[in-house]
Backbone:
């Protein structure tokens, strides 16, 4: 890590509130002082330093963020969102060890979190199945198989409902899937409404429904322990892109089984 770059970033970060006050609309030093919790002397020193380093620029109406300063404001906002997301999503983050999720957890900041408990260990599984049963189209990727009950329920729903399904499975999941429900798997492989891709490198379980996206974690027995449900466009965009990447690296199940 570049220590000087880190020190410079921390120095600018300590003045992020002043940059934010000048973001979008120019502000005089007096106006900035009114908007932030700093003394007049601190505001003067900070605005001078930020201008000298190219994060603020002077206009006839006062200071405003430069393009560099605008990037810092946006990055600071993302950091704050990430810190909030860490607290809210702790059960999911404890259940999923993934750099992909860590880098994008802030997109799930407003997600509904369904967490299994000792008194209700199947609440996350049941909620996931409720979403399945009300969907007409679903795309999902899973790196680890669920419990036998959830596999049978989900596979039966796919077979009976006629919903449009795209599955992205790891080879391990396909093998376990085949051992658990060989007849059901054979039926959906040849079903016209189902497409299956076998792909390595799926980072965690996730699904895309019509109105929401989900990210989940399972325990060692395959039972869902956490389900994050989001209707945020940013979360959908991220998971759509992730699904496309997993899909493009895969092999059609028919070719894989040859």
Residues:
């Amino acid at each position: 890590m570049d220590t000087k770059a880190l020190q410079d970033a921390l120095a600018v970060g300590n003045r992020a509130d002043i940059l934010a006050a000048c973001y979008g609309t120019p502000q005089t030093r007096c106006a900035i002082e009114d908007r932030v919790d700093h003394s007049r002397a601190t505001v003067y020193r900070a605005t001078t330093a930020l201008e000298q380093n190219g994060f603020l620029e002077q206009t006839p109406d006062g200071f405003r963020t430069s393009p560099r300063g605008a990037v810092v404001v946006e990055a600071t906002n993302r950091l704050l969102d990430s810190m909030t997301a860490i607290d809210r999503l702790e059960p999911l983050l404890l259940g999923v060890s993934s750099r992909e999720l860590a880098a994008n957890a802030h997109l799930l900041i407003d997600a509904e979190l369904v967490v299994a408990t000792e008194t209700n260990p199947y609440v996350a599984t049941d909620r996931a199945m409720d979403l399945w049963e009300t969907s007409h189209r679903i795309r999902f990727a899973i790196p680890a198989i669920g419990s036998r009950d959830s596999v049978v329920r989900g596979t039966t729903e796919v077979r009976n409902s006629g919903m449009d399904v795209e599955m992205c499975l790891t080879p391990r999941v396909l093998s376990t899937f085949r051992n658990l429900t060989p007849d059901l798997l054979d039926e959906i492989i040849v079903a016209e409404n189902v497409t299956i891709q076998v792909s390595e490198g799926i980072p965690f379980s996730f699904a895309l429904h019509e109105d929401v996206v989900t990210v989940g974690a399972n325990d060692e027995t395959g039972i869902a322990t956490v389900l994050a449900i989001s209707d945020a466009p940013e979360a959908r965009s991220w998971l759509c892109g992730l699904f496309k990447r997993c899909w493009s690296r895969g092999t059609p199940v028919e070719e894989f089984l040859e």
Remarks:
- The chain has two domains: 3-76, 89-256.
- The first helix runs from residue 3 to 13.
- The first strand starts at residue 56 and ends at 59.
